[in-house]
Specification:
The complex is a heterodimer of chains A (266) and B (165). Among the domains of chain A are: 50 residues, Uridine Diphospho-n-acetylenolpyruvylglucosamine Reductase, domain 2 (2-Layer Sandwich), CATH 3.30.43; 95 residues, CO dehydrogenase flavoprotein, C-terminal domain (Enolase-like, domain 1, 2-Layer Sandwich), CATH 3.30.390.50. In chain A, 33% of the residues lie in helices and 22% in strands. In chain A, the strands form three sheets. Chain A has a five-stranded antiparallel beta sheet with strand order 4-5-8-6-7. In chain B, 33% of the residues lie in helices and 14% in strands. Chain B folds into two domains: 74 residues, Roll (Ubiquitin-like (UB roll)); 78 residues, Orthogonal Bundle (DNA polymerase, domain 1), CATH 1.10.150. Chain B is an alpha+beta fold and 165 residues long. The chains are: A alpha+beta (266), B alpha+beta (165). The complex binds flavin-adenine dinucleotide (FAD) and FE2/S2 (inorganic) cluster (2 copies). The site of flavin-adenine dinucleotide (FAD) has 31 residues of chain A, from strand 2, helix 6 and helix 7.
Amino acid sequence: MYEFTYHRASGLRQATNLLGKHEEAKLIAGGQSLLPMMKFRLASPSDLVDLNKIEGLNGIELTSRALVIGALARHAEVHVSPEVQQGIPALAALAGLIGDPAVRHRGTLGGSLANNDPTADYPAAALALGATIVTTKRKIPADEFFAGLFETVLEADEIITKVSFPLPKKAAYQKFRNPASRYAIVGVFVAKRPSEVRVAVTGAGASGAFRVPEFEAALQKRFSPKALDGLSVPAEGLASDIHASAEYRAHLVGVMARRAVAAANG
Amino acid sequence: MPAVSMTVNGKAVRAEVDSRTLLVQFLRETLRLTGTHVGCDTSQCGACVVHVDGVAVKSCAMLAVQAEGAEVLTIEGVATGEALHPMQEAFRQNHGLQCGYCTPGMIMTALDIVRRKGHELDDQTIREELEGNLCRCTGYHNIVKSIAAGARAMASGDPALKAAE
Ligand SMILES: Cc1cc2nc3c(=O)[nH]c(=O)nc-3n(C[C@H](O)[C@H](O)[C@H](O)COP(=O)(O)OP(=O)(O)OC[C@H]3O[C@@H](n4cnc5c(N)ncnc54)[C@H](O)[C@@H]3O)c2cc1C
Ligand code: FES
Ligand code: FES
C-alpha cells in the first residue's frame, strides 16, 4: 500500500471539502473493496476520507411507498433489519449472501454501489427495483447510475447519502455463487412492480449489471417461470473467465431468472 | 503520524501509527498481541478475525486509525486467568485444531456466531457461518463439532463441557 493522508470526516460538508481540495482523494466506507485494492496498488489515493464517523448515514426507514437505506448501512444490518425484512424481504436475503459474516459487518450499501464491481449483488437489486441513489448533489435513477466496469456517474466530490428502493409487489434474488470468492458468477434479481416487471443480472455482463428487456416483456404478460420458455440471453458480450464461459453464464441467466420468478411467486 | 487510541481486551492503548497500519499489524507489531494471525492478507481466510465494538471483523481489512475509540477483543482477551474460555476448551476437547494457525480466527468467529445465533447450533448453520474462515488441516469436521459443543457449554456456563458430553 502506498502512503496516504488519513482524514476522519465528521460531516458531509467537511468530507466534500476534503475531496475537493485533494485531487487524488478517495472516500472510504467499509473498506472491504478499497483496502484490498490499495494493498494490490490498484488504487493509490493521496488522501483517504473516512465516512464512518459521520452521523445519520446508516438509518433504515420504511414508508408506505419505499424503503430508504443510508449509504453507511452495513450488509449485516440490512440483512437483519425488520424494516427491510418487511418491506423488501428479497433485499434482506441478498445482503445475507454477500461475502461472509465478517465482510458483512464492515461492507456498506453505498460502498458497494459506488464500487460497481461487475460481480457485486446490490447493483442488480438497484436496477431491478428501480432504486434512486441520493447523493450530496442530486438524485440519480439506478438506470443512469452505473457506467461500466467499476464506473459510475458519481463525480469526484460527490457522496452517496442514501438509496431509496420503491416497494415492489413481489421480488426475489437468485445467486449462483463462486464458491471461492463468494461473489456472483451469475445473480438475477426479478421485481414485479406496480407498473412493470424488471429483471436485472449481475456477474454475467462484461461491463457490469444489466437488464433483460425480452424477459421483462414476457414476464409482464405473465409472471411465471413458464413465460420464459424458449427465451435466452445471447452469450456474445457476456463475461468469460476461468470461473465460467460466456455460454455457461448465458445459460445460468435463464436458470436463475426462472428460479427467481418461482421464488417471488412463493 | 496520526495517533490512535482504543481499548484492547479491556485495556486502554494509544500509539502513533503510520496511516497505512492495518489493525492486525497494530495488534501484532505495536501491541505484541500475536495470537491474531495473518493467513492471507487478502480478506479470504479469517485467521485475523477479532471483535471490534462487539462484532467479528477481519483485522487485515481495517486500518488501525479506523478503530479510533473502539473496543477491540482478541483471542488473548477471551480466557479468564488460567481458565480457558468454554469455546477454547471445546476446541481442545474435540480436537478442533491441528497446526492451530486458523484457530484464533475460528474461535473469534465462533463467539460471534453464538452472539447472533444462540447456543443451539446445527452443523449446517455452523458450516455456513464459517464461510469466511479457512482451515488447511482439519477438514472442518472437528471445528464444527467444537463450535456446537462450545456454544452449548457457554449456555450452561460449564467450562469442563460436562453438558456437551
Ligand atoms: C472476501 C470478500 C467477499 C466479498 N463478497 C462479495 C459478494 O459476494 N457480493 C458483493 O456484492 N460484494 C462482495 N464483497 C465486497 C463487499 O460487499 C464490499 O463491502 C463492497 O463492495 C464495498 O463496500 P465498502 O463499504 O466496503 O466500500 P469501500 O471499500 O470503503 O469503498 C469502495 C468504493 O466506493 C467508494 N465509496 C464508498 N462509500 C461511498 C459513498 N457513500 N459515496 C460515494 N462513494 C463511496 C470508495 O471511495 C471506493 O471507491 C466481498 C468482499 C470481500 C472482501
Ligand atoms: S489475514 Fe485477514 S482474512 Fe486472511
Ligand atoms: S488447524 Fe491448521 S489451519 Fe486450521
